[in-house]
Specification:
Strand order of the largest sheet: 1-2-3-4-6-5
Number of helices: 2
Order of helices and strands: EEEEHHEE
Number of domains: 1
Strand content: 35-45%
Largest sheet: 6 strands, antiparallel
Radius of gyration: 13 Å
Structural class: alpha+beta
Distance between the termini: 29 Å
Number of strands: 6
Shape: globular
């Protein structure tokens, strides 16, 4: 489901080989942990069953039905920022291959 929200940012907070991916819109922020490996970066994302509860606990109820859209936005931004060769999305995360 596409939304008219077009103003968002994806920021990477790096602390060594791991850190946080911050997804921000005007009224919400979601944080996802990640780990950097030799040839990839893996972002841990709650699965479909956990997504709504995660959004509620993060104060981002409006994101509860937008998991696919948000994950695709994060994946596209990571591809652009990390100059990776491929991005794979699965049920529990995003893998960025360098």
């Amino acid at each position: 489901m596409a939304t008219p929200l077009t103003h968002y940012t994806v920021e990477i907070e790096q602390t060594g080989l791991s850190g946080w991916i911050n997804y921000r819109e005007s009224m919400l922020t979601l944080r996802f942990s990640y780990e950097r490996m030799l040839t990839s970066l893996y972002v841990f994302v709650p699965g479909n069953e956990q997504w709504s509860a995660y959004c509620r606990s993060s104060g981002a109820r409006t994101a509860g039905s937008r998991r696919t859209e948000i994950i695709q936005r994060i994946a596209a931004e990571l591809r652009a920022q990390q100059a990776s060769s491929m991005v794979q999305i699965n049920d529990y995360g995003i893998e960025v291959l360098f």
